Prior knowledge:
Layout: H1 8-18, E1 28-34, H2 43-56, E2 61-65, H3 77-83, E3 88-91, H4 103-107, H5 115-124, H6 127-136, E4 140-151, E5 154-156, E6 170-172, H7 176-184, E7 188-190, H8 197-202, E8 208-209, H9 214-219, E9 228-231, E10 233-246, H10 247-251, H11 255-289, E11 293-296, H12 299-319, H13 321-344, H14 359-366
Parallel strand pairs: 1-2, 1-3, 6-7, 6-8, 9-11
Antiparallel strand pairs: 3-10, 4-10, 5-8, 5-9
Signal peptide: 1-26
Protein name: TRAP-type mannitol/chloroaromatic compound transport system substrate-binding protein
Binding site for Na(+): 211
Amino acid sequence: MEKPRLTLTGLAAGIALAGLATTAQAQESWTMTTTWPDNLDLIQIDRHWVELVNQLAGDELTINFRAGGTLMPGTEVFDATQSGAIQAAGDWPGYWAGLSPAFSPLATTTSLFNGVDYLNWIMEWGGWELYQEVYGEYNMVYLPYGITNNESGFRGGTPIESLADLEGKRLRLSGRDQGRVLEQLGGSQVTLAGGEIYQAIERGVVDGAEFSTPGVDYKAGFSEVADYWSVPGWHQSASVFGVMINQDAWDALSEETQEKLKIAAEATMAWSLAWSERESTEGTVKFLEDGTEVNQLSGEDLARIQEITNEVIVQGACEDPMHAKVYHSMISYMEHYANWRDISAPYNMSRVTDNLPSLEEIEACMNQ
């Protein structure tokens, strides 16, 4: 598949194409669901893409969208899309890391990418092709269409003011690499579905929990049960969301319709980053108005997290070739982009760091 490009001319062409009748192309009707139920605001990203597709490609394709949990449990949408039981499903790639650890960096990173890094990498530094390679092993095409910047951090009933406060803490945390970092910091990872976090904090089942951005967290009601908020969200420095599409369903579309779906994904991805930052800002204001106490980790603590993160990334790369390939591409991007990024600071768009995981060590594992 040809890599999508975000250009005004491409978007204009897509809108123009939407007004043209297709030649002998039967209208397709898809069923799509998502991992997100109606009460989690991340579902807005899925809905935004579906609405754009139905506007741009309505003559050739109609997507009937159902909220997460209304057709099947969110844990089953991967298998349903792979088998063709449904044509598409919105997801967060990290949920499938048990099938392949390569899904984890396609979803998020610990103390590495920010939102603009993901946008750059997906669009111009080879990221899009890697999503196709990883999901392609499971009979699916993947269109990344959502990016959020770093997540809130840990919320709970006791303050986490420094790394020393993580010792012995049971924290809800998603992601294999994230859990490994937390373990080295003295905490223990607890795995909970998003819908279980509120009660787990309220009842003291966990000492703290992370879930998403401040806007999503506030609408999930966490201000009611968590008095303390530890920042920044180093565990997920940015996140990517997208749509899994069954390969046979994709192949049944015309090239023009496929292109419209890509255009809708590009437009949704750009919108989602700005939307989530606005939501995060408004959510933060509301948490503060409710009296939430914010505890900021020191620069020294963040430097220690970066050191451990680098070790964990290399460890994971040496355990799985595809995991290594994804991280090698990401770190190569950061080193290449640094040629311009560093001299444009502080006005650049990406994260500046002088301590990255070792490409040489990852390459050594890849060549074994």
